[in-house]
Amino acid sequence: MTSEREQELLQKLSEREAEIARLQEIIRRFGDETERALEDYARIRQENALLKQKVDLLIKRIFGAGSEKMDPKQLELLLEGSSPGKSPEPVSVAEAPRRSKAPFSPREKKPRLPEHLPCVEQIVDPLPVQAEPQAWRFIGEEVSEQLDYEPARFLRRRLIRRKYVKRGDLDGAPIIAPLPPVLQERCLAAPGLLAQVIVARYCDHLPFHRQEQIYSTRHEVNIPRQTLGHWADLCADSLGIIYREINAGVVASDYIQMDETPIAYLAPGNGKTETGYFWVCNRPGGDVVFHWHASRAAKCVEKILPANFRGVIQCDGYAGYRSFTQSPEREGRIRLAACYAHARRKFIEAQEQAPRLVGWLLRQIGHLYMIERHLREERAGPRLRQAIRSAQSRPIHERIHRALVRLKIKKRYLPQSSLGKAIDYTLGQWNGLGVFLENGRVEIDNNLVENAIRPTAVGKKNWLFVGNADAGQRGAILYTIIENCRRQSIDPYAYLREILTKLPTLTNRQINDWTPAAYARRLREQQRAPLRRAS
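Given the sequence above, the corresponding structure tokens read:
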């Protein structure tokens, strides 16, 4: 009996041990699942936070203000509560050099109406004077002015060439003046109309179908949009020699700013659009030139720049430029300068994530731009710019670097967050961001070339795509002409009308005298000539 009881107890004990082991396994599995659930919950919260930042950034880009300028009072509000000796991170904050305020000088009062406009006078007398003018004596007048406008008009330009025969020579052949040179024989459009079509499309951003409607409904002149497109092609082909002259001057420089912007074009065969690119090269203080390529590959840069190019290329963080400069035949000959405006833009996008920290960083970058603004106002040369930058801008530049390195080491902000991306981008571009400190000719940012690209964004919204791939290069030629006219502050219509009139008679040696820059210099000389004669 005792042995049977012991066996029964041992069996129950083994069953209890098995049950305990099973319960322990369940508890262990439940603990693992709980731990995994907590990890998933933390990961989901992190992803939600990142998605919220992206949504907020997208809403800000669509509905927010487009300007990156910030009110200094807003930065002071973000930094409120932090003393100059204590920043959001343990980095030293020193006061940047402040710009000395110029003495107040009142601006000259501009005339209410431009003085150069033609004046049309209309004299209005009272009715009693009109009825009996001899009974009244004129003692004075009151003048009021209004600004009026007369819409553009079409006209028929008829060229009449008379034929003559010599008196007394009955058998002599008649003579007639030859036709003046034109861009294309039997072309219906005169240079003035061709200039208007180009300016309306590439400066005022009116698609050809809208121009067709305007000419038809307002002027009763029917010009099919296909004809307008052919005329634009004719102008682009004729102005190609001016375009090549501008491009040769830009790529001959040892300092070029470059950027690219996507442009849709009509793919052949399927009626769908594909993405091409305008590559824009800018020579600061000089001309700007557009190039068309159907891709964004680094080989496009090889086609744009000459094989022997040596100097500085200022660009954004696109890897295509880096791969272009790191090829064995170009290594050491080209240096990339980065853009502080791109770095600042990244921090502006991350401002809501850490307002005080980002406010401090933006304030430091603002000090750099304040120094640059002072140099532009003083019209400082390259040597003076480099000296002032070394003395005033370099300490601020290094202070920003120390702060970003400490933030990166502490790993407080996730790499995929807006602020984490801004920190990684800025540190990744740091060597290029410091080039402007070493070379007084280099700008602090790439804004000059971006300003040249900006008008194309308005055009893309209106005409959607440039046409086929061949039309892309013709658009690049015409955009180059229009943008250089804008840069030289000359009327693009007046320039195009004159150059399209004279172009058939110009020789290759005379082309350099008819670029927009040369045309602007000639206009300024003509304006100064009467002043010199008067003095």
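The chain has 18 helices and seven strands. Try to locate this feature in the token string yourself.
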